[in-house]
Specification:
The complex is a heterodimer of chains A (505) and B (343). With 505 residues, chain A is of the alpha/beta class. Chain A contains 17 helices and 22 strands. Chain A has 3 domains: 240 residues, Rossmann fold; 144 residues, Rossmann fold, CATH 3.40.50; 82 residues, no CATH class. The radius of gyration of chain A is 24 Å and the shape is globular. The N and C termini of chain A lie far apart (54 Å). By secondary structure, chain B is mainly α. Chain B has a single domain, classed as ABC transporter involved in vitamin B12 uptake, BtuC. Chain B contains 16 helices and 4 strands. Classes of the chains: A alpha/beta (505), B mainly alpha (343). The interface between A and B is large, with 50 and 34 residues.
């Protein structure tokens, strides 16, 4: 490829925030019509880099060349006018505006401040058709769209700018498996039209599938540039990201499938969510539930924990019935929910208070909390989990995703927990921290804790669990020991489970 | 083998719904409840004072009385609705009305005539609103704190300007606004209708209105879309101040005077009316028509107490209860009605 195909070039870009050197020499080169993958651990500087390209932040040093011109957008609008559009990780949509209004937010078609609703709707329809989703009505409220539909609206916004480069920050994180395929189809159409895409993802198989070249960031610096996305060995990419050579491996397991079930779920049903779910978890056993987003996995987990009221069926731990969160916690159950930021953490509170949230009365004397004791207990747990940074008085907000997850898990370790429910424990967690989390989960099981795990990533369920349950549309349709089932089988089951309907779960 | 792979298109396509159960009709469903409340209030009025409701001319006169009662607070509520949809709150509206009213009725201002008084009231309202907005946007004060401080300070300023005296308006044009009619419709009601209509258009048909929803609904998304959130926020409070200035003239005309204690507790009435009308206190959702219905519910209640000769103390107690009841009922009704229509 000739040099003239290069649309975007970053050289020695540096960005400092008070106390942090977020970017410390980034090199990046993006060609016309390519999918350029950006890889790096959480905190490596990807988000900062994106925001510089989007005109939210401004680089302190280094040069950015966009279409052979120096590029320094003063605000997001300037970047968009220049032809760089960004799809952010957190969906940046307004729920109470329509699809068309969201697509053209900030650059509405208007005359004298009055909206041109008809032509906006028409242009939105055009873009949606281009995206292969002509069935989404431009005037429908975004609130009523499913997550995949919202993702499409985000992309429509990017296209509404006539973009030549689209930055996608983990676009697949909120999508189910078959929706990711549709996303890839759209990306291929875009690149065929000469639009360049910067694609950020933690999922190696996606990078293999859609990527052309890969640039790796570590600690705000480019550690490898322009590697071929399909041929570069995973080992090499991981070592560039971590500086270590960690394989994306699961620690070996000595399965323990004897003994009495600790958790027994029978006939559990919630209308419209899941039907007649039955499962058991023994002490020291890891049971994984595989299924697509929306299959009722999270709802099932939350019902077992007593956070939702079951319509029928029973949950017992050690023979005692569970009907409320209070009863669940007293019986030694702990839960790490899917949305750890909104459902599990007090982001501005220090680590130790987050860890003792479910157990701090135990450290209190006649109603007065004992910060010293809490801190000491949290420090012990932090050691056990290899929490980084180790300072337990830091606010949780400052931790990376993986370490935040460790805090959530750590909360239940303080409290004689016998059974741990984990919902998507590695979402948004980088590869290095994942391996550590896997080890933590294994150590817990080895210590006799029963674990019930839900994950969208099938290899994770297979690699981590002793026993695998497959869930589809609210039904547990299959159960097998982890070593007797493979990824392809699971995917077939979750996507075309009708083959097995009628068979006992 | 009934369904194999679900095509992607079906995943994102929301099910087609009839108009009355779809999004577009949601504000109508909400307002339907408020219309129901209004009807109930009228029925209570008929039951308690059947002899009055037998007289057709009394009924039509009473309707205008209710609407006139709703006019000034209705105008303030339109501004408040914008502020709340934009993710803020304005506790100083009553105090702004007082400052604007008092300032426009000083002897010096009155000497400039009708337009001078109107101009002063509107200008004072907008400037105080701008100060609120700048403190919140660029001074990064929490709206609650900034406007709470303004509420106290502006009332103080109003008392200072008026020397704690009631300032009589000797301008007949202003005074006649309250008593005049055009085509049989009281001018006060026409002003309310114009402000409500302008508010509806501004919210639903202009970039300003849509950006207000965006800022209140998802401020980060608005910022990343290139909207100048700070400037927009300043404008929202200025808009609220503008509405207060208009309301000040309307109230001055009704009382033919202004004083520092005028428009007492308007902030609470306006917030309550907006919330009852379906505006989300956290921002990002709300309708002007709903807010108008909220105001009408309150003025109808006031009227109901007046025709039954009940004290304002009892009235306030009932009003507080009704705010809670209305929101509770609305949540319940909205959910059940939505579920019902979904079937």
């Amino acid at each position: 490829m000739s040099d003239s195909d290069v649309v975007l070039r970053l050289q020695g870009v540096v960005k400092t925030f008070p106390g942090v050197r977020a970017l410390d020499g980034v090199e990046l080169e993006v060609r016309k019509g390519e999918v350029h993958c950006l890889l790096g651990q959480n905190g490596a500087g990807k988000s900062t880099l994106i925001k510089i390209l989007a005109g939210v932040h401004h680089a302190d040093e280094g040069s950015i060349t966009w279409l052979d011109e120096p590029f320094a957008p003063g605000n997001p609008q300037a970047a968009m006018r220049a032809g760089i559009a960004t799809i952010y990780q957190e969906l940046d949509l307004v729920e109470d505006l329509s699809v068309a209004e969201n697509a053209f937010l900030g650059h509405e078609e208007s005359r004298g401040g009055f909206l041109k609703r008809r032509s906006t709707a028409a242009r939105t329809r055009e873009i949606l058709t281009r995206l292969g989703h002509a069935e989404i009505p431009p005037r429908r409220m975004v609130r009523s769209l499913p997550a995949a539909g919202k993702q499409i609206v985000s992309m429509a916004r990017a296209l509404s700018h006539d973009a030549k480069l689209i930055v996608m920050d983990e676009p697949s994180a909120v999508l189910a498996h078959d929706e990711v395929e549709n996303l890839f189809r759209i990306i291929r159409e875009l690149t065929a039209q000469g639009i360049a895409v910067i694609y950020i993802s933690h999922r190696m198989e996606e990078i293999r599938d859609i990527g052309d070249r890969v640039t790796v960031l570590k600690d705000g610096r480019t550690t490898a540039a322009n590697l071929p996305a399909r041929e570069t060995p995973t080992r090499e990419l991981v070592s560039r990201m971590t500086g270590r050579t960690i394989e994306y491996v699961f620690p070996p397991r000595v399965g323990r499938s004897d003994g009495e079930p600790l958790l027994r779920v029978e006939g559990l049903t919630r209308a419209g969510e899941f039907t007649d779910a039955a499962l058991t978890v023994r002490a020291g056993e890891i049971v994984g539930i595989a299924g697509l987003v929306g299959s009722g996995r999270s709802e099932l987990l939350e019902t077992i924990f007593g956070a939702r009221q079951a319509d029928s069926g029973t949950v017992t731990v050690g023979g005692k019935p569970i009907r409320s969160i209070g009863a669940a916690v007293r019986a030694g159950m702990g839960m790490a929910p899917e949305e750890r930021k909104s459902q599990a953490l007090l982001l501005d509170e220090p680590i130790y208070r987050n860890m003792t949230l479910s157990s701090f009365p135990g450290y209190a004397r006649v109603g007065f909390t004992d910060a010293g004791k809490e801190r000491a207990a949290a420090e012990r747990t932090a050691d056990r989990l290899e929490l980084r940074p180790r300072d337990v008085s830091r606010p949780v907000r400052t931790l990376s995703g993986g370490n935040q997850q460790k805090v959530v898990v750590g909360r239940w370790l303080l409290d004689r927990t016998r059974l741990l429910l984990l919902d998507e424990p590695t979402r948004g967690v980088d590869v290095g921290a994942r391996a550590e989390l896997y080890q933590v989960i294994h150590d817990l099981a080895a210590g006799g804790v029963g674990v019930l795990l839900v994950s969208s990533e099938v290899p994770e369920v297979l690699g981590l669990a002793d026993r695998v349950l497959v869930m589809r549309e609210g039904h547990l349709i299959h159960e097998a020991p982890a070593d007797e089932i493979d990824e392809a089988t699971v995917l077939d089951l979750v996507m075309a489970g009708s083959l097995l309907e009628g068979e006992p779960a | 083998m009934t369904d194999t792979k679900v095509p992607a298109a079906h995943v994102t396509a929301p099910p087609k719904r009839a108009f009355w159960s779809g999004d577009a009709a949601e504000p109508f469903r909400r307002n339907l409840g408020l219309v129901g409340v209004l009807i109930i209030l009228v029925i209570i009025g008929i039951i308690t004072r059947p002899e009055l409701y037998g007289d057709a001319s009394w009924v039509s006169g009473n309707i205008w009385t209710i609407l006139k009662q709703a006019s000034a607070i209705g105008v303030v509520t339109v501004g408040m609705t914008f502020v709340i949809i934009g993710g803020g709150i304005d506790l100083s509206v009553g105090a702004i009305v007082a400052v604007a009213g008092v300032w426009s009725t000083t002897l010096a201002t009155q000497s400039y005539g009708t337009l001078g008084m109107i101009f002063t009231a509107v200008l004072v309202g907008v400037v105080v609103g701008l100060i609120n907005g700048i403190l919140i946007s660029y001074g990064r004060l929490v709206p609650f704190i900034a406007t709470l401080a303004m509420m106290v300070a502006a009332r103080g300023l109003a008392a200072q300007i008026s020397g704690k005296q009631t300032q009589v308006s000797s301008n007949l044009t202003i005074n006649n606004i309250a008593s005049n009619e055009i085509l049989g419709i009281p001018v006060l009601v026409i002003i309310l209708a114009l402000v409500v209509a302008a508010g509806w258009v501004l919210l639903n048909r202009t970039t300003f209105g849509r950006r207000t929803v965006a800022i209140g609904g998802n401020v980060e998304a608005a910022r990343l879309a290139g909207i100048n959130v700070r400037l927009h926020t300043v404008l929202l409070y200025a808009l609220s101040g503008l509405c207060c200035g208009i309301a000040a003239i309307m109230l001055t005309s009704q009382a033919t005077s202004a004083q520092a204690a005028m428009a007492n507790l308007y902030e609470l009435d306006a917030i309550a009316a907006a919330i009852i009308g379906g505006t989300l206190l956290s921002g990002g959702r709300g309708t002007i028509v709903g807010a108008l219905f909220g105001v009408l519910v309150f003025s109808t209640i006031t009227n109901l107490f007046a025709i039954n000769n009940l004290s304002t103390e009892v009235q306030n107690m009932v009003k507080g209860g009704i705010i809670v009841a209305a929101v509770l009922v609305q949540q319940f009704r909205y959910q059940s009605l939505t579920n019902l229509l979904k079937r």
